[in-house]
Amino acid sequence: MKKIVCLVLILSSLCLAQGFDFMNSAVKGGTRSFAMGGCFTAIDYGIDAMLGNPAGLAGMNSSEILLNGRMIVVGDMGFDDDFYEVEREQKNSYNDKINIKPYSLGIAFPLRLPESNVNITGALGYRCYYDMSSTRKREYSNYEENTVYESTEKVKGLLNVLSAGFGVQLSKQVNIGVVFNVPLFSKYETITENENLYSEAITSVKSDISGDGFFQLGTQINMHPRLSLGAAYFMGHKIKYHDREIKQKNDDDYRPYESEDSEIEHPDFWSVGFQFNALDDLLLTTEIQSFPWEDTKSRMGASYYKTGKDLRVGLEYGREIKLRFGYYTNQIPLNDDGSDFMDKYGFSGGAGFNTSSMRWDVSGVYRVLSHTSTVRTIFNPESVGEYEYKVRQFLIYASVIYTFDFGLGF
């Protein structure tokens, strides 16, 4: 029999995992890789490689400028409908509203060294690395009546980094690359407009975000004309929330609050992937990504457990117009022995095409966290049942890359 837990514990653990995984996960890869299940390690090339495996920068003969962004289209978070039919149970569900954010701006250019056969490409960029921005509507009900109330939460949170790096083509078979990232101009702000049975309140939370600089390293090896291997490594780093300011306006009463600084220490991340050109117009890719959550440390009292590895697969088909599809899956344990876990999976698709000097890419990603457990509520202990909690979200990514003839000589 599954472990019986109370509603409060389920909500807190699931919301913590959802918030960290969906809103705070590092952005690795570009629009093309998102369409292919998040695979980037073996397939990155050109300016996109600055966002994932920097080894893909190597071998460029012309310069590229990148601009991309993302849009949260729809999403929801909450228990299934059967749960809310429990007597005297509070309805508590969330729905995402449309939220648009630019993601990155960058340039990559060949570095032409005199009397050298080594192919080197440099890259500079300013990009979002952790995305916490969203607009979400919450619906909830009073325990003693059927009235449904609403609140709206608007979050403006980005950890932006200034990135600089290069890729080197050591031979026709081996590329390597490195990018150094420095957090810069990052803030977090959430404004919640809440209406309940007795009053209306507006809560504002603002804080500055800073973090340690960190490296990302990568290599790509052409093992066969149709088969290549990629490996990438992102150095662990800390994220700090400081100078936090909390203000609450309840009807006509205005109250400021103080809050302690907080810090999250993220462990190292690595990925290994393969790319196989099955046909001239068909590319297959798969990779494993590590998520060592058991090493994550937080001064906010949060704890994370070992999740194993993400398995991701993707394909790209076509010549003039390239169609892309992908899938990824993982299980996230909620306790030390792995007896209780959440399912994590996602589907993706997209397309890309080239003009004389432009490359256009678009992708859509549908991602889900789900957890089924036997639950009893703290408000009605007799109400015991098996319910499913889900977090669902659909996003669209788009990018444009402009190619031009330029190289920096020495």
Low-confidence stretches: 1-24, 300-305
How many helices? The count is 2
Oligomeric grouping of the chains: single chain
Cα separation of the termini: 70 Å
Q: How many E-type strands?
A: 24
Helix-strand pattern, N to C? EHHEEEEEEEEEEEEEEEEEEEEEEE
- Give the structural class: mainly beta
Q: What's the overall average pLDDT, rounded?
A: 79
What is the global morphology?
globular
Q: What is the alpha-carbon Rg in Å?
A: 23 Å
> Roughly how much helix do the residues carry, as a percent range?
under 10%
Main sheet properties:
24 strands, mixed
What is the beta-strand fraction?
over 45%
Fold blueprint:
Elements: E1 5-6, H1 7-23, H2 31-35, E2 63-79, E3 92-97, E4 99-112, E5 119-131, E6 134-141, E7 148-169, E8 174-183, E9 186-195, E10 200-211, E11 214-224, E12 227-234, E13 237-250, E14 253-258, E15 262-266, E16 269-279, E17 282-290, E18 297-298, E19 309-317, E20 321-333, E21 341-354, E22 358-376, E23 384-404, E24 408-409
Parallel strand pairs: 1-22, 4-24
Antiparallel strand pairs: 2-3, 2-4, 2-23, 3-6, 4-5, 5-7, 6-7, 7-8, 7-9, 8-11, 9-10, 10-13, 11-12, 12-16, 13-14, 13-15, 15-18, 16-17, 17-19, 19-20, 20-21, 21-22, 22-23
